[in-house]
Amino acid sequence: MIKSLSPYYVNIPFVSPLTGATAISYTLNLFIWNGAKNDPPAEPQYQITKTNPTSSTGTDKINIARLVNDYINFIPNKSSVTELNDGNNQVWCRVEIIYTTDNPLDDDILQLANTSLVLKGYGYGLDGENSQPPTNKILIPIQDYKVNRNGFFNVPILIDEIPDDSEIVLTDIVNFVSNIYTFSFTSNFSFDWLLYQTRLNSTSDWVSARIFEDVTSPENGVVPVLFHTAGIFEARIYAYNELTGNNIYSNIFEYSL
């Protein structure tokens, strides 16, 4: 979820997940709309292009909160009785990245697609970067409120989306040669790109995602030399489902020699 009254950062690696090439520049496409999650507009509302003059291989950050906030015209719901009302004070935001590199395979390829719900809300400093809604899904602090006896009071509650039964299961990882590993998997939906991530065991940070050359099991992927030398690491794969607008993540698979 994006709370548009607080900063919301999109983290963009300068290394293309598809080819591993360092970006000369990248373009961030922002699609913002109200309606079905899987029905974005044909053209982006914003395009932001940034160059990489130092050939950095790190990660860039762009705050998109102010941009998406302009598309929410907040209108309070009114009712004379106690009831559940569907709110319409939110929009969807889809992010896509197009890389320009020395590798022509990156040309005009949409990468790192992700769709999020946007609310005109804010987080607190202790919530950390890109704060998410509480587990109880009540979007205001739980406390006493004074309300005019002739007035109205809305309690905003985040409801669950329709369950998405899309699934990817990472079934096996074997060493192919050097630090190249073969990933075997199953899935029950179609996708254009399949990505993988790795990390050392007992750590929380995943290495920037890379894209497999194809989407048919099995696929070969490069694992960082440090992980290969250690002989033990964790991996997961994921893909973007265009029909549901969700990134579908696999189970976390532990590899050890």
Describe the structure.
With 257 residues, the protein is mainly beta. The protein folds into 2 domains: 2-127, Sandwich (Immunoglobulin-like), CATH 2.60.40; 168-256, Immunoglobulin-like (Sandwich). It contains 2 helices and 15 strands. The two termini are 39 Å apart.
- Kindly report the spatial arrangement of strands forming the biggest sheet: 1-7-6-3-4
Please tally the helical runs, counting DSSP H or I stretches of 4 or more residues: 2
Which residue ranges are poorly predicted, with pLDDT under 50 across at least 5 consecutive positions? none
Shape: globular
What's the end-to-end separation, in Å?
A: 39 Å
Helix content: under 10%
User: What Rg do the Cα atoms give?
Assistant: 21 Å
CATH architecture of the largest domain: Sandwich
Beta-strand content? 35-45%
Question: Can you tag this structure with a few keywords?
Answer:
Immunoglobulin-like; 257 residues; 4% helix; 2 helices; 5-stranded mixed sheet; globular; 37% strand; 15 strands; mainly beta
Write the layout of secondary structure elements.
Layout: E1 2-3, E2 9-13, E3 25-33, E4 46-51, E5 59-63, H1 65-69, E6 90-100, E7 110-119, E8 168-177, E9 180-187, E10 195-199, E11 210-211, E12 219-222, H2 225-230, E13 232-241, E14 246-249, E15 253-256
Parallel strand pairs: 1-7
Antiparallel strand pairs: 2-5, 3-4, 3-6, 6-7, 8-9, 9-12, 10-11, 10-13, 13-14, 13-15
